[in-house]
Amino acid sequence: MNLSDLDSTGFVWSKKMMKMQIGVIALLVALSVVEFGLASPNTVPAFLWSPHLQAANGELDEAVNYQVMSAKDLVGSVFTHGGWSNFLCSEKKVEQPVDVALVFIGRELQSSDVSSKRNSDPSLVNTLNGLYTSSNFSLAFPYISAPEEERMESLLLSGLKEACPHNVGVSNIVFSDSCFVEDGTIQKLSDLQSFKDHLLARRETRKEGETDLVVLCSESSESHSERESISELVSSVEQSGSKYTALYVSDPYWYTSYKTLQRFLAESATGNSSSVGVSTTCDELCKFKSSLLEGILVGIVFLLILISGLCCMAGIDTPTRFETPQDS
């Protein structure tokens, strides 16, 4: 081996070592980014079920869509795959009519709460699981991107108008006061008891083939939790003998925004937080920000290590000539 071969071999080896170090650092940075991405609360679950609808082949239909879809695509799937357009649009032929289409819009349940044993509300998850598994027709969407620009109830109304472009066949639409809808013609009810009274009255006045759309938006209340509201309303519909189909979807964005505003106003006040009744625990937004800062700090540390390693390797000079040993 001559001197030129030795010099080129050392240079190639140094170059391979540099690429290896850069690859390891890039892998560590990617793992930290993936960990941060999985920890961010950006997906919510949705469940569609009905004890009165049947699949096309007459067998039990329990399907799970594991794709991550937007809230708008979810509404479209409810009207198409869920069959809601068949009985909510007057121009379409109804093969399996239902009397009531229930929509429950939650505020706190996330995708991680369904898959993990340690969830925020195990009673709610168990209730939804019981309703889902005991129905003849059921669809599950575990990963729905939480809407950030438009609320779920607004997307539902927009999807209804798109699915029924000619004429909406819903005879009666009712929303709760906690839902945010700009249409002033829609009837709103104040509490859970008013929903029960409304369903009881509609049972007497509803004509055959008509379908009512009932939307209940959850709110922070000490009197009724989400599980209690769902259980009581479903029991009320079943006791009345009405056929129904139900959709549960979580929309925590606006609820989290309200808590953020409440915390900001509390911190801006001159008094302490206990005087305004604000909890000092770290909520989901707090955990999201802490994970973001942690990922940024870890990325900065790895970047400094990378720069230091490149500077050290750039300072290594391989000799271009070796002296020939003298014969003794």
TrEMBL record:
Bilayer disposition of the protein: Single-pass membrane protein
A matching Pfam family: Ac45-VOA1_TM
Membrane-spanning residues: 296-316
Main location per the UniProt record: membrane
Record-level GO cellular component terms: membrane
InterPro entries: VAS1/VOA1_TM (IPR046756)
Cell location: Membrane
Alphabetical keyword list: Membrane, Transmembrane, Transmembrane helix
Taxonomic superkingdom: Eukaryota
Every V-type proton ATPase subunit S1/VOA1 transmembrane domain range: 292-323
Name this protein carries in UniProt: V-type proton ATPase subunit S1/VOA1 transmembrane domain-containing protein
